[in-house]
Amino acid sequence: MFTLPEAWVWDFWFADDGDRHHLFFLYASTAVGEPDRRHFRASIGHAVSDDLVHWTRVRDALVRDDGPSFDDVATWTGSVVRHPDGTWFLFYTGCSLSPDGTTNIQRIGWASSPDLMTWTRNPANPVAVAQAPWYETLSLGAWHDEAFRDPWVFADPDGDGWHMLITARTPQGPADDRGVVGHAWSPDLREWHLREPLSRPGAGFGQLEVTQVEIVDGRPILLFSCLASDVSAARVGTGTTGGVWCAPAASLLGPYGIDQAQQLTDDEWYSGRLVRRRDGSWVLLAFRHSDPRDGSFVGGISDPWPVRWDGRRLEFVGQGPAVRRTLAVSANAR
């Protein structure tokens, strides 16, 4: 398990340079006192490993920028991809405050690197911002922040540029059921164009966090996380908890069966990420969200759990994370 003695560690993502796995993670000093305050002190740390188990910390990737800037409060979750010219791109969430200084505004930018170690911000950041008519903005007053974050970037399967999946909300429907997979497209990773969501609201989630799409054992799947507090009232059933979810997909770009999502973990673990090992097998990692004894925040990234697609659902191979409560909603998975 990857932990830091002086800091909380939570959301994370990976890059593989062919020799080593690179772990990028959010962290904040425990000196801030209250765990919820970590969100407004978050920086992006960096560690390397040969086996996804033993990690060596290296220099941080990014910290918040000087204000005024779209990321002058904190730098949040993202993804890393490599351009065909060899340049690495780190896409990340920048957080700043609303004009009255009370509410978190989330926008997306990028930094680039020749070696995954030294990162230079794009001077034209941000490159993706919540906008009507497709995406809910703070002005509507329906949610506690302007949710537009967690960029997951991947190459188009047919070679038509690049796609970005985004944690976003639409302006339509019940306030607790507006979570969608936001979408932007780029021809070159540098310039981005907002597109309509790749999913519809009404699937039971106020927001779908840290999305990821992969093809596991020949089956496209969408991975996301959602806390119990963000599951819609219409979906809540006895024993429903937050955690990591997996939805079937027709392709990497959907349609996604979010209403059929399978819950993989309860709220002890969160922000799951799929990673392919060098032997081609898949593993899942997640961060330790809550202590099962008292529900307090923990932090720290798990060791890898092997997973596979069994023809019907994603399953853990061998011993996976224990799910402590009955998951009523998982009966809908297929």
From TrEMBL:
Q: Which biological process terms from the Gene Ontology are attached to this UniProt entry?
A: carbohydrate metabolic process
Domain (Glycosyl hydrolase family 32 N-terminal): give its ranges.
19-220
Keyword Transferase in annotation? no
On whether Hydrolase is a keyword of this UniProt record, the answer is: yes
Which molecular function GO terms apply here?
hydrolase activity, hydrolyzing O-glycosyl compounds
Per UniProt, which keywords does this protein have?
Glycosidase, Hydrolase
Question: The organism sits in which domain of life?
Answer: Bacteria
Homology family: Belongs to the glycosyl hydrolase 32 family.
Identify this protein by name. Glycosyl hydrolase family 32 N-terminal domain-containing protein
Q: Which organism is it from?
A: Nakamurella endophytica
